[in-house]
Structure formats: structure tokens, C-alpha cells
Write a structure and sequence with these properties.
alpha/beta; Rossmann fold; six-stranded mixed beta sheet; six-stranded parallel beta sheet; 40% helix
């Protein structure tokens, strides 16, 4: 039987742990599947979509989560609502999904971080849109913080939420983050390998945050997380989110159901593998 092929696309893509995680998920399910990396810059998508059509399915990471949408035939409800896609299933048509919400909510649960109260979200790109919508749907008071050069995208996100969910969202620049927050979320790549000494907000901005979630998973312990813990804040990185959103992708591709203890072990194994691979 011909082995099925899957991939993750992004740019750059060399730092990803996705092949390790998805290979293990195929093994746990007793399914055959090859999973590869494909580096595709946004401007290359129009000429490489046929290449992606040869796959059974694929994942999308920075910076293509929104840019892939015009090339798809349909979106599931959450992907359409959020305007972000991280998983595609190929068949007679190309269908886009977002499994980031599944991974994010499971990651907060895994770290015992409450998702309520006053939330400040740093970033306004594809994965940030997921966090923003989930925060509003959970009844949180949301502030979206972004760089000045991203003000147009930031306003578009706030306007989309107001239009679709009839709920207001505060906006500020990253430098203007102030006050007390129940949760600060980093939805930018700042602090990601190899720029491990970078931190998206100041230590002062972190000083009154009860909890911090950093979507960056490489390194496991970012400067942001280290600073948060030094303040006595509860803190969690993105590895558990990465694994749980991958689980949701397999549910879409194959209808696979996994045991929680298997996935908890995979989170630990993925962390060890990343440390071995990149440190």
C-alpha cells in the first residue's frame, strides 16, 4: 500500500517539531503516514498550491495561516469565524480548519491556568486571532497589544470581533501595556529559537500578570516564561498546545481518538526531543 503523505508548511520552517509529533501520532494510531517539512514563503503559495494538492493533508504555520485561505474551497465554522487556518484536509476539495483553539484550551488546562478575567494578548496575526476569539467567547475582558507597524491589522482584528461577536476589544501598543491582568498571552514569534534572548514585553509589564502563556515552544523555557516565574506568576509554554493541536489535526484527517495519558507522555517526549535537537 502506498504510504500517505502529509506536511507542515511555513517560512522559515527548520525549527519545527511537527514531524516528530505527527510521526508518533501515526504510530500510536497504527496508521501509515509520511510527514515532511515544506518551506513556502507567502509569495510562493500561488505557484505551489498544486504541490500541496498531492498531499493527503497538511498543517500551516507562520506566516501562511491567513494567506492560505484564498486557495481553499471551504472552511469549517471556526476557521471561517477566526479567519485563520492551520490544518487542511485534501480530497475532492481543499478544506481548511483551525485546530489551534483545541490546542490552546488543552494547554491552559494542562498548566492549570484559568481562562477568565482580564486578558492581554500580544500580537494580531493568525494564531493571535484564535486566542482573541476564544478569550471573548470565554467572557474575558480582552486587550490586544501590537507593534505600531501592525496597527492596521490590530484594528482589523478588533473590528472583526465587534462585528461577528458584538463585543468590544481594547487596543494598545506593546509599550503601553499597563495595569493588572489575569493572563498575558504571547502570540508572536518573539523569543523563538534562535533569538532566544528576546522578550516581547518588559519585565515591568509582566509584574502584575497573574499568569502568562507563551505560544512559543522552542525554547521550552523562554525569557518571557522565566521572567514571569520570577514574579511568582503561573507560566506555560507552547509545547503542550503544539501537541494537542496536532492531535486535533489527526482527528480531522483520520477520525483518530487518543488516550490522554498517551498524549501527556508525547508532550514530555517532545520536550526531551526538542532539547536534544536544538540545545
Amino acid at each position: 500500500m502506498k504510504e500517505r503523505r502529509f506536511a507542515v508548511i511555513g517560512h522559515p520552517i527548520g525549527h519545527t517539531m511537527s514531524p516528530f509529533i505527527h510521526k508518533r501520532l501515526f504510530e500510536l494510531a497504527g496508521e501509515r503516514g509520511e510527514y515532511i517539512l515544506i518551506d513556502i514563503a507567502p509569495e510562493e503559495l500561488p505557484v505551489r498550491i498544486k504541490e500541496l494538492d498531492e498531499l493527503c493533508g497538511y498543517n500551516i504555520t507562520i506566516p501562511n495561516k491567513q494567506r492560505i485561505i484564498p486557495f481553499l474551497d471551504s472552511l469549517d465554522k471556526k476557521a471561517e469565524l477566526y479567519g485563520s487556518v492551520n490544518t487542511v484536509k485534501n480530497g475532492n476539495t481543499r478544506t481548511g480548519y483551525t485546530t489551534d483553539p483545541d490546542g490552546f484550551l488543552k494547554a491552559l488546562q494542562y498548566a492549570d491556568i484559568p481562562f477568565r478575567g482580564d486578558v492581554v494578548l500580544v500580537g494580531c496575526g493568525g494564531v493571535a486571532r484564535t486566542f482573541a476569539y476564544e478569550a471573548v467567547l470565554a467572557g474575558c475582558s480582552l486587550t490586544v497589544a501590537a507593534r505600531p507597524e501592525d496597527a492596521v491589522m490590530q484594528k482589523a482584528l478588533a473590528d472583526d470581533i465587534k462585528k461577528k461577536l458584538n463585543c468590544g476589544v481594547e487596543c494598545c501598543s506593546i509599550a503601553e501595556i499597563k495595569g493588572e491582568h489575569d493572563l498575558l498571552i504571547n502570540a508572536t514569534p518573539v523569543g523563538m529559537y534562535p533569538n532566544v534572548n528576546d522578550m516581547v514585553v518588559s519585565k515591568q509589564a509582566l509584574s502584575k500578570c497573574a499568569a502568562v502563556f507563551d505560544a512559543v515552544y522552542n525554547p521550552l523555557d523562554t525569557m518571557l516564561l522565566q521572567a514571569a516565574r520570577a514574579n511568582g506568576s503561573r507560566a506555560a509554554g507552547g509545547m503542550s498546545m503544539l501537541v494537542w493541536q496536532a492531535v486535533a489535526a489527526h482527528e480531522i484527517w483520520d477520525g483518530t481518538v487518543y488516550k490522554t495519558d498517551e498524549i501527556n507522555q508525547l508532550i514530555e517526549d517532545s520536550a526531551e526531543e526538542m532539547t536534544r535537537k536544538f540545545c
